[in-house]
Each structure stands twice: as structure tokens, then as C-alpha cells.
């Protein structure tokens, strides 16, 4: 998955604005390339977990051929899914899962399926 510089900048800016809580949202992808970022609201307002809220019309983008990747930030931990992330994967099971670590300014992609965590290549 390619995350262009401008989309990465949006992810970073949102994560910085939401600190000390986790930021979350949805990256809209077409043909393996992120086209834009839809900022979400972390209704949990927590530095340890997120509950994603986005405008309802965001979910219909899949009907238009887009792939949706969930995004959230970690304040100080590496950009790897935490136990909480794995336990709360829900409808995102098997779908692209992006994490930005503010501490290291690194972005990583994953898929989580049946408690298995697999890396997802993320480039610029």
C-alpha cells in the first residue's frame, strides 16, 4: 500500500492534535494508493484505545470501489498492534490496519485475522 507524503502529513498532524489521546480515522485507498484521509473522532478519548467515529457516508465508499484502511496513533509505543488492538479488531478483521507512532514518527501497516498479526507493506 502506498501512502503519499501529503496523506502521511495529514495522519501525523491529526495524531499531534489529538495527543495525549489516540487519533483515529479512515484512509481511503484506490488501486493500492491512499487518496485521502477521513479524520475520525475517538469517542473513547483515551491514550490507550480508540473507538472510531466517522461520518456515516464514509462506509459507502467501499461500494464505489475504494478500500478503507483503519488508522490510529500510538503516542510512545511502536507502530505495532497492541493486545487491545487485537482484542477490539471487530469489523476490521483482515482489512488494512495502519498505526503511526508519534514517538518514532513511523507508520506501519498490518492485517489482523483470528489473532494473527501479519505485516502489510507500506511505502511512499
Task: Describe the 3D structure.
The protein has helices spanning 5-18, 83-87, and strands at residues 24-30, 33-39, 41-42, 52-53, 67-74, 97-101, 106-113, 116-120. By secondary structure, the protein is of the alpha+beta class. The strands form 2 sheets. Strands 2-1-5-6-7-8 form a 6-stranded mixed beta sheet, with helices on one face. It is globular.
Q: What's the helix count?
A: 2
What is the structural class?
alpha+beta
Order of secondary-structure elements = HEEEEEHEEE
Approximately how much helix is present in the residues?
10-25%
Residue fraction in strands: 35-45%
Name the quaternary structure. Answer: single chain
Poorly predicted segments? none
Main beta-sheet strand count, sense and barrel state = 6 strands, mixed
Biggest sheet, spatial arrangement of strands: 2-1-5-6-7-8
Report the average pLDDT across residues: 96
> How far apart lie the N and C ends?
8 Å
Count of individual beta strands = 8
Give me the Rg, rounded.
Answer: 13 Å
- Outline type: globular
Map the helices and strands.
Blueprint: H1 5-18, E1 24-30, E2 33-39, E3 41-42, E4 52-53, E5 67-74, H2 83-87, E6 97-101, E7 106-113, E8 116-120
Parallel strand pairs: 5-6
Antiparallel strand pairs: 1-2, 1-5, 3-4, 6-7, 7-8
Amino acid at each position: 500500500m502506498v501512502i503519499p507524503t501529503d496523506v502521511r502529513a495529514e495522519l501525523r498532524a491529526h495524531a499531534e492534535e489529538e495527543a495525549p489521546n489516540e487519533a483515529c480515522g479512515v484512509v481511503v485507498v484506490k488501486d493500492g494508493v491512499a487518496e485521502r484521509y477521513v479524520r475520525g473522532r475517538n469517542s473513547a478519548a483515551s491514550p490507550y484505545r480508540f473507538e472510531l467515529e466517522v461520518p456515516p457516508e464514509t462506509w459507502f465508499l467501499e461500494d464505489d470501489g475504494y478500500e478503507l484502511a483503519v488508522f490510529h496513533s500510538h503516542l510512545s509505543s511502536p507502530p505495532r498492534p497492541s493486545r487491545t488492538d487485537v482484542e477490539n479488531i471487530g469489523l476490521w478483521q483482515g482489512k488494512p490496519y495502519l498505526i503511526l507512532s508519534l514517538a518514532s514518527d513511523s507508520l506501519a501497516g498490518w492485517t489482523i485475522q483470528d489473532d494473527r498479526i501479519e505485516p502489510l507493506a507500506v511505502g511512499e
